[in-house]
Amino acid sequence: MAARRQTHYRGKTLEELQELSLDEVVELLPARQRRSLTRPEYWNHERSKLLAKLREAKEAMEQGKEVIVKTHVRDFVVLPEFVGLKVEIHNGRDYDTVDLTLDKIGTYFAEYAHTRALVRHSAPGIGATRSSMYVPLK
User: Fold this and answer.
1) Which of 27, 53, 89, 126 lies deepest, with the highest CB count within 10 Å?
2) CA distances (Å), 75 to each of 3, 37, 41, 46, 49, in order?
3) pLDDT tens for residues 51-78?
4) Average pLDDT over the chain, rounded to whole?
5) What's phi and psi for 88, nearest 5 deg?
6) How far is CA 54 from CA 6, 88, 91, in A?
7) Domain boundaries, the chain
8) Cα–Cα distances in Å, from 107 out to 77, 128, 135?
9) Which long-range contacts (CB under 8 A, 24 or more apart) does 32-41 make?
10) Is the CB of residue 88 less than 8 Å from the CB of residue 68?
């Protein structure tokens, strides 16, 4: 069964969410995100700077420009005003590009840039085990 695209967040459309103030949006978010956003120390220099960059990118996008914001801040909550933007989130080695959509509201950036990759091992190399010493070379 194909996943259905979400058109509402907590009973409100995207247009209704974008008209709300930050305090009103915070009331709709889950408890962990609500607690984070209401703390004064959450809005430190890094996050305030990222918030300003995202707002600048949103204005540029409305003028028709394609702007991608790069960030190392992984514990930033996706807010409705940033839906439609592209963000590159650092995963420890490189950046993962993420499109912010309606279904990502209320989640953290880190959920979309995984720091650990799945490792798939093949057969052991020569000398990797005691028994591989006796395997004839091709």
Assistant:
1) 89
2) 26, 11, 13, 11, 14
3) 999 999 999 999 999 999 999 999 999 9
4) 89
5) -105, 115
6) 23, 12, 19
7) 14-115
8) 6, 43, 51
9) 33/77, 33/106, 33/107, 33/108, 36/75, 36/77, 37/77
10) yes
At the top level of CATH, which class does the domain 14-115 belong to? alpha beta
Q: Which of 75, 86, 80, 135 is nearest to 104 (CA)?
A: 80
| Confidence tier at 138 by pLDDT (50, 70, 90) | low
106-110-114 Cα angle (round to 5): 135
The pTM (predicted TM-score) of the whole model is 0.79
* Residue listed under structure tokens 């912010």: 100
Say if CB 82 and CB 53 are below 8 A apart. no
Beta strands at 86-90 and 95-99: parallel, antiparallel or unpaired: antiparallel
| Rounded Cα–Cα distance for residues 68 and 86 (Å) | 5
